[in-house]
């Protein structure tokens, strides 16, 4: 599904150049659950933005489902994103003062899904993350952090994307709530077959994935199957 060859990214701000990624090479197969782990500033978000078609690399080749994405226009990139990719962020990024259901339905509006189908799809996504039905009409800013993140995951899944990125999804949650969120990701991977790429700086969180890629100073320093997938 994902094939990266020698991906690099240099940010230029005036005279200042930052090499955020230098020569990342790896691939991810359909249905994998991969963690990309590294300390703050190691290039994780830069890599996610490139893999998620939110930004382009300065060098190297990125093939998504066999297709070189470097020559696509902004519109074409946006279309691929809408059809194939879901994102979950550390800060949830929900619309405040807007109901849970409305937040989850919104990507379907952009995706051109007919109004009559939206409700059922949003309800399915909320059930998939075990979000309690009695709170579907609550406003997003009335929820706890763990509930917000589950709504954000439902929103990321509502278009049934084959590929889901989560950038530090437990970063704003306490440990216990973080565990629940990680279990939700694992279940979605196991039961629904979504390919999941999880970005984290925490080894304890990476342990929920089946494979751990470690990145440091913009370089992949290890890429190994996780032989002790966390089950609690
Ligand atoms: N838009 C940007 N402009 C300039 N430098 C950036 C930009 N985004 C990230 N960087 C730099 O690139 C490096 C990697 O950043 P990032 O990918 O955000 O790392 P991480 O997500 O692992 O914390 C850091 O040195 C960061 O300061
Ligand atoms: Mg980051």
How are the elements arranged and paired?
Blueprint: E1 2-13, E2 16-28, E3 33-37, H1 44-51, E4 59-64, E5 67-68, H2 74-84, E6 85-89, H3 100-110, H4 115-128, H5 145-157, E7 163-167, H6 175-192, E8 195-200, H7 203-206, E9 211-216, E10 219-225
Parallel strand pairs: 3-8, 3-9, 6-7, 7-8
Antiparallel strand pairs: 1-2, 1-4, 4-5, 9-10
Helix pairs in contact: 3-4, 3-5, 4-5, 5-6
Walkthrough of the structure:
With 232 residues, this protein is α/β, with parallel strands linked by helices. It has a single domain, classed as 3-Layer(aba) Sandwich (Rossmann fold). It has seven helices and ten strands. Strands 6-7-8-3-9-10 form a six-stranded mixed sheet, with helices on both faces. A four-stranded antiparallel sheet has the order 2-1-4-5, with helices on one face. A hairpin with a 2-residue loop joins strand 1 and strand 2. Helix 3 packs across helix 4, helix 4 crosses helix 5 and helix 5 packs parallel to helix 6. The longest helix is centred in the C-terminal third of the chain and has 18 residues. The protein is globular, with a radius of gyration of 18 Å. The protein binds adenosine-5'-diphosphate and magnesium ion. Adenosine-5'-diphosphate binds next to strand 1, strand 2 and helix 1.
């Amino acid at each position: 599904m994902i094939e990266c060859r020698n991906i690099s990214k240099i940010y230029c701000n005036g005279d200042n150049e930052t090499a955020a990624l230098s020569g990342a090479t790896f691939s991810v197969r359909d249905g994998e659950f991969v963690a990309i782990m590294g300390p703050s500033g190691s290039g994780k978000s830069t890599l996610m933005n490139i893999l998620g078609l939110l930004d382009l690399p300065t060098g190297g080749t990125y093939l998504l489902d066999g297709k070189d994405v470097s020559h696509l226009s902004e519109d074409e990139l946006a279309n691929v994103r809408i059809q194939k990719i879901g994102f979950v962020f550390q800060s949830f990024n929900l619309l405040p003062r807007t109901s849970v259901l409305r937040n989850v339905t919104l990507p379907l509006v952009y995706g051109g899904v007919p109004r009559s189908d939206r409700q059922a799809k949003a309800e399915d996504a909320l059930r998939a993350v075990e979000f309690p039905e009695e709170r579907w009409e609550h406003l997003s800013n009335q929820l706890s952090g763990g509930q917000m993140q589950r709504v954000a995951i439902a929103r990321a899944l509502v278009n049934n994307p084959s590929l889901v990125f989560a950038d530090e999804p437990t970063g704003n949650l306490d440990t216990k709530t973080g565990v629940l969120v990680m279990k939700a990701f694992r279940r979605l991977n196991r039961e629904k077959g979504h390919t999941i790429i999880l970005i984290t700086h925490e080894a304890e969180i990476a342990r929920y994935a089946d494979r751990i890629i470690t990145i440091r100073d913009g370089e992949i320093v290890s890429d190994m199957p996780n032989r002790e997938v966390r089950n609690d």
